[in-house]
From TrEMBL:
InterPro entries: HEPN_dom. Gene3D superfamilies: Nucleotidyltransferases domain 2. This is HEPN domain-containing protein. Transmembrane segments: none annotated. Residues 10-134 form the HEPN domain. Pfam families: HEPN.
Length: 140
């Protein structure tokens, strides 16, 4: 069952990113940012479920990446842990924007610029590729 759930999470994650990019093209920036955040969150959750067998009840992409990195380290997979940690550090500001999209797109008067959302979409795509590589390295 968990294999099916992993694939469902990955599929939904890809669809959220596709919809986010389409909304960005249409100029619906807050909705685009929210969909991109959902894509990132689901993709990290899929990796956690596949690699560790569990998904913590957390919405923050940065926190989820921290959990993944820590669990990989605990499992003796320091190289994979360092890869995740380096990714998160190098993109800390954009990941903070992605995290803030979870609530800001619904409750705040603040809006993102198209450049902000384009960068979020780019980092989200990078995150998908990174986690595909980490899963392959860890699980073969």
């Amino acid at each position: 069952m968990s294999g099916e759930r992993v694939e469902l999470l990955k599929s939904r994650s890809k669809r959220f990113l596709e919809v986010g990019v389409e909304l960005l093209r249409r100029g619906l920036l807050d909705l685009a940012a929210f969909n991109i955040q959902q894509s990132c969150q689901l993709r990290v959750e899929a990796a956690l479920l596949r690699i560790l067998g569990d998904i913590p009840r957390v919405h923050s992409v940065r926190e989820l990446l921290g959990i993944l990195s820590a669990k990989l380290e605990e499992a003796g997979l320091g190289d994979a842990s360092s890869t995740v940690k380096s990714f998160a550090r190098a993109r800390r500001e954009v990941l903070a924007d992605i995290d803030s999209a979870y609530t800001m797109s619904r409750y705040s008067l603040f809006t993102f610029t198209s450049g902000d959302v384009e960068e979020m979409a780019r980092v989200c795509s990078e995150l998908h590729r990174l986690l595909d590589e980490v899963e392959e390295r860890v699980l073969g």
